[in-house]
Every structure is written in C-alpha cells, then in structure tokens.
Design goal:
The chain is of the alpha+beta class. 41% of the residues lie in helices and 23% in strands. β2 (41-48) and β3 form a beta hairpin. It is globular, with a radius of gyration of 16 Å.
C-alpha cells in the first residue's frame, strides 16, 4: 500500500501505528527468501554484496498465510501502479545471489 493508503486504512481501523526513528530509516535488501509451514510464512530480507561470500539478513517477518496472500495482492497492485507511472521494471540480468557466484 502507498503511504496515503496505509494512513486511510489505519484511520478506518482507528489504529495508531508507531514508527521509531531507527525503523523509519528502513533497511536495504536486494534478496528475499520465503519459507513456509502449514500455519505461517517466514520472509527473510537479505543484503547481498557483490563478490562477498556472506550475506546478512536485514529483517525477518513471520506472518499468517492469509496475511501473506493479502501482502502479495498489495504488492501486485502497487507494482502495476508503479509500472503505469514509470514504465515496466526490467528484471533481466543477474540476480544479486548470481553475482556472488561469479
């Protein structure tokens, strides 16, 4: 969801969301790993540096299957809006983990 949509959704729920300064800085990730069990999904967001044999998990999110599907739909919607505005996202070329292998 966009920032505006999140605020509108939060107002509808009468939910106050806290965001401390450190979390507001965000964490850059160029790789995500997804694992699941019957009851939950685990999303690991990782930063891979080119030519480095180690990568660090920057954030781990554990969530329910229903919420994961809602997240997937929100991501699809936002990628479509992004591409309508800025053009198709080019995903050709090596992925970060592939760059490490060379």
């Amino acid at each position: 969801m966009s920032d505006k949509n999140e605020k509108v959704a939060a107002r509808k729920l009468n939910l106050q969301i806290q965001l401390d300064e450190e979390m507001a800085q965000g964490a850059y990730a160029n790789l995500a790993m997804v694992n699941h069990t019957e009851s939950e999904f685990t999303l690991d967001f990782i930063y891979v540096q080119p030519q480095q044999p180690k990568a660090k998990v920057r954030a781990r999110v554990i969530t329910s299957p229903k919420h994961t599907k809602r997240l997937l739909e929100a991501l699809k919607e936002n990628v479509a809006k992004y591409e309508d505005r800025f053009g198709v996202i080019d995903v050709s070329g090596p992925a970060p983990q592939d760059e490490f292998l060379h």
